[in-house]
Amino acid sequence: MSALEPLATLYASERGPAAPLPAELTALYGRLDFAPHAGRPYVIGNFVSSLDGVVALNIPGVRSGGGEISGFNEHDRMVMGLLRAIAGAVVVGAGTLRSVPNHRWTANYIYPSLAQAYQRLRADLGLTEPPLTVIVSARGEVDLSWPVFQSGETPTLLVTTRAGANRLDGQALPPPTRLSVVEDADRVSAAAVLEAISRERACDIILTEGGPLLMSDFFAEHLLDELFLTLAPQVAGRVPAIPRPGFVDGMLFAPDQPIWGTLVDIRRGGSHLFLRYAFEAARR
Questions:
Q1: Which of 49, 137, 195, 270 has its CA 20 to 30 A from that of 208?
Q2: How far apart are CA 54 and CA 4, in angstroms?
Q3: What is the pLDDT of residue 283?
Q4: Is the separation of the CB atoms in 228 and 44 below 8 Å?
Q5: Bridge-partner residues for 226, per DSSP?
Q6: Which of 215, 204, 222 is CA-nearest to residue 245?
Q7: What pLDDT shows up at residue 281?
Q8: Which tens digit of pLDDT belongs to each residue from 32-45?
Q9: What are the residues facing 49 on neighbouring strands?
Q10: Angle at 275 between CA 272 and CA 279, to 5 degrees
């Protein structure tokens, strides 16, 4: 059993049946539910942000993932593990992968002390396989020797364009990894990512952990149902010479096409806030 203190629920709206969380996860997180979504996957995002909206420190040569933003907060890692545990697929952009090349996108990896509870949750949800790890790289700028491709811990799907596939031609595709090529395109849209996943496996919940360019596509195409946002009590700062993105980057929405969310949940762990926003306009 984890020694972690339970999250305090400050606000929660019930929108569907409760997920069958094991007792230790219920004690730590509380109730977890999702709006009905029969006949299609429910797409959720997860990010941690500083108080001033920074999601990556972006310093060359220095590790610059979400851990540096959250302060390697245990509650944040526990929630990341919970979301990975319920997901049929976890989607990650190549930029995020390059920032943490040794990472594996599983619940057990991010919070091993709850590995057994996460596994029981997957079993109770009927998820007999590890989540499909989906790496999105339009240009094919990834190293297939990295653990996410080589470890065999999860099946991996690499989604790229024809130009990206040509760039990868000199690397041997490891057996746990499959390649999905978006033909006649110079970018990989969010819709193309979801279509590629659907050809590999049926998913009830798909989780995307960014990065900001990929998240912008999901918002722009109205394909994100919910965002789980951890607000860390850090002020990171910005200077022109070091771009530090928020959780969306590369697109402008406001003022012409702002995307408004509905707050559906607030939890607190120490000075970290765990927010959930639903985007009801998502879905076509």
A1: 270
A2: 26
A3: 52
A4: yes
A5: 44, 278
A6: 215
A7: 55
A8: 999 999 889 999 99
A9: 231
A10: 160
- A 10 A CB-CB count for 38 gives 4
- What is the rounded distance in angstroms from the CA atom of residue 238 to the CA atom of residue 249? 15
Pair of tokens at residue 53? 């909206």
DSSP state of 250: S
pLDDT in tens, 76-134: 999 999 999 999 999 999 999 998 899 999 999 999 999 999 999 999 999 999 999 99
Which amino acid appears at position 120 of this protein? R
Question: DSSP string covering 95-120, please?
Answer: HHHHHSTT---SHHHH-GGGHHHHHH
Q: Copy the structure tokens of residue 82.
A: 């919970």
What value does the mean pLDDT take over residues 36-58?
Answer: 94
Sign of CA dihedral 95, 262, 89, 102: positive
Q: Percent of the chain having pLDDT more than 70?
A: 96
- Structure token pair of residue 111: 């919070």
3 class by beta-carbon count within 10 Å (0-12 exposed, 13-18 middle, 19+ buried): exposed
User: How many CA within 13 A on the CB side of residue 280?
Assistant: 5
R_g over Cα of the chain: 18
- Ramachandran area for residue 58 (φ above 0: left; ψ -120 to 50: alpha; else beta): left
Between CA 88 and CA 18 the distance in angstroms is: 17
